[in-house]
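Slide 14.
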Amino acid sequence: MVKDIKFECAKCNNKNFTEGKISTTGGGLSKFLNIQNNKFITISCTECGFTEIFKAGKSGMLTNIFDVLSN
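Slide 15: predicted structure.
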């Protein structure tokens, strides 16, 4: 996904990172139903652990239905 970027940690200047993903609920009905429709990509420094979070975009309807059924 983002392996081709040039990374330098803002805290320790390390150049190595790991990539991760997180999902969160929004507000209102999605929070009540625990639909995790907000997707983010995380970039974490392998040396000090400093992590930056970037919005990845909205998920599709099928993913939202699966989130509801798996809760």
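Speaker note: The radius of gyration is 15 Å.
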